[in-house]
Amino acid sequence: MRNISRFCAVFAALTFSASCGGNGPTVSPTPTTPPATVMSIAVTGKDFDFGSDLDAGKCQQAVAMARFSDGTEKDMSSEAVWGSSDEAVAKVSSGLVCGVSAGTSRITAKLGTIEGGIEVKVRRPPPTAVSLVARAETTDLVLGQQPVQATARATFSDNSARDVTNEVDWISLNLTVATVSPKGLVTPVAVGKAGIRAKLGNVEGSMEVTVKEPTTIYGAVYCGSPFGARVVSGATAEIAEPASARVQTTTDSQGRYSLAVRVATFKLRVVYGQRDQNYDWTLAVGTRLEWNVLFSPPCN
């Protein structure tokens, strides 16, 4: 009898039996937490603000961020089913949105019955340059002259055309003969020929410049009547205008003067004694011109 009582006590303590003269303790099952479910989906751009226009022919990655019932968020782009409301405007695959033509399309990401989306505006791509012309007022340059402005004009895929001088990349193909600045200023450096190229995207235009020595003109200063004139010494002849001519005047033993002219149009100044006269000259680059100045008496 004593052994039976001891067995009932041990059995009741370890389990949940009520057979030994009373109600024993019971054990409740552990509650389980239901899995979090998707509550909403937000579609955004990964590196692009879809509030801005997307160019036709360009693609941008979209992201589907899901918010769950437990308050967490997760990128579900690879799990979502993507769609476009108008594939003639924009297409989407695995979240990669590509513009097709101008218009608006809604890009959606769906997980089960939950869907999120964003409006995407697609615009026509900006026109591209299809041809480029580079030119300058003159391509015949003279050593020592001021830089010459080169210009570039482009024609675009929409048939428009405009000046792009300050947009192109300027390149000299022979820096030992001529250089060109980022703004298209061409400066002669040495005698010879140099190609000057303008580049805009994949389109190029070019021209060739020729650099020559300054034109030398010769002349003499005379004093007296047309029938009894004599070459005088002590006279000076110089370029009065423009100052950019940078001309040096020399005299030989016969009283002849030579002037290296670096500009096409200039003003020649001749001074002898009390006489001071100016003469306007126009000279084509590469030509020689004989000039004579006659002073009537008195010559000094």
Fraction in beta strands: over 45%
For the sheet with most strands, the description reads: 5 strands, antiparallel
CATH architecture of the largest domain: Sandwich
Examine the coordinates and then state which fold CATH places here, giving the name of the CATH topology of the largest domain: Immunoglobulin-like
Outline the secondary-structure elements.
Elements: H1 2-14, E1 38-45, E2 54-55, E3 59-68, E4 73-75, E5 81-84, E6 90-93, E7 96-99, E8 103-111, E9 114-123, E10 129-136, E11 140-142, E12 148-156, E13 161-163, E14 169-172, E15 178-180, E16 185-188, E17 192-200, E18 203-212, E19 215-223, E20 230-231, E21 236-241, E22 249-251, E23 256-261, E24 265-272, E25 275-282, E26 290-295
Parallel strand pairs: 2-9, 11-18, 19-26
Antiparallel strand pairs: 1-3, 3-4, 3-7, 5-8, 6-7, 8-9, 10-12, 12-13, 12-16, 14-17, 15-16, 17-18, 19-20, 19-23, 21-24, 22-23, 24-25
